[in-house]
Write a structure and sequence with these properties.
mainly beta; Porin; 20-stranded antiparallel sheet; 10% helix
Length: 315
């Protein structure tokens, strides 16, 4: 189930250029609202609130080789001292009953994530990531999807200054990640053998947040990202996974949206995809902490996507 979820999320945001906001539950996305006093969690207005639970729900409909496909996911991450301790995911595919899984994260003595194991409601392990380190750097990631070995993979990594090269066992595809002096990723280029097949370049604004990503090759997109003026609670939580989240993606995944959503110091509030601009619906509590964020898209009538986040805090 986790593999299905990852595939859906990877295609959900950036698959077309003639995009129209959905009308309906969230009233479209061309509205940015700053409503004070709509807090969640404890309801406290204290400025020292920390994120306790992060909820992410999606509702996606599209056609796959002519067959209709509809999936709903409900997920939450449990957070303690700004570190994710576990997460829960429920998925319904084509209106089937929801299947649930609990993900447990294990860390080594240095706080680095060494495994992410998913167990279903029957107590069976469905999939697992094992991360190996050499001299403090990720040297290998092994993914085992118990239901289908075709989804398994082993990534190996080599380092040369600010360049990380990823190879996959049994595959001709390799990916090269380039980082700047601040250890922020600026380029991701994938090769089939020696032939470059996709390149994504990233630029940053004065706050150090991703402002633009340009992708050429198998995918061609020019995307810019905008932010509000308030602190994002996700950066502190997800920055421990900054490198891991990219090293563990698929070669074709675009990473700009991950930078904007999870690793920006301010709250992501809008995107321009190949000239089509969208603002998101954000709500805040009285301390200007984000409480909800809703995003809706219609990609040329072929894919509809509703994305809803809730932020719960504790003192």
């Amino acid at each position: 189930m986790k593999k299905i979820l990852l595939v859906l999320l990877s295609i959900s945001l950036f698959t077309g250029c003639e995009n129209e906001p959905l009308e309906g539950e969230f009233g479209g996305t061309d509205v940015l609202t700053n409503n004070q006093g709509n807090g969640n969690g404890t309801g406290s207005d204290s400025s020292d609130l920390t994120l306790d639970v992060y909820e992410l729900d999606t509702d996606i409909s599209f056609s796959f080789f002519g067959l209709p496909f509809h999936t709903i996911t409900r997920s939450d991450a449990n957070i303690s001292n700004n570190i994710i301790t576990s997460s829960n995911i429920e998925v319904s595919v084509n209106d089937s009953p929801f299947e649930s899984e609990t993900q447990t994260i294990t860390r080594n003595g240095n706080g680095q994530i060494t495994s992410d194991i998913s167990v279903n409601a029957s107590g069976q392990t469905t999939n697992e990531y094992i991360i190996t380190y050499t001299s403090g750097e990720i040297s290998q990631i092994t993914y085992d999807y118990f239901e289908d070995d075709l989804d398994d993979y082993i990534y190996n990594f080599t380092y040369n200054g600010n360049v990380i090269t990823r190879t996959e066992v049994g595959s001709s595809i390799s990916t090269v990640f380039t980082l700047n002096t601040s250890n922020k990723i600026t380029k991701k280029e994938s090769f089939d053998g020696t032939a470059s097949i996709q390149v994504e370049t990233i630029t940053y604004n004065s706050d150090g947040n991703c402002s633009n990503s340009i992708t050429t090759g198998e995918t061609n997109n020019t995307i810019s990202y905008s932010y509000d003026g308030f602190e994002s609670p996700l950066k502190t939580v997800f920055d421990e996974q900054y490198i891991l989240s990219f090293l563990n993606d698929d070669y074709s995944d675009e990473i700009g949206y991950t930078l904007a959503q999870f690793h920006a110091s301010k709250n992501w509030n809008g995107v321009n995809i190949n000239g089509a601009a969208f603002n998101f619906d954000l709500q805040y509590n009285a301390s200007n902490r984000i409480s909800t964020r809703n995003i809706s898209y219609n990609f040329e009538g072929e894919l509809t996507f509703v994305f809803s986040e809730t932020f719960n805090y504790v003192n």
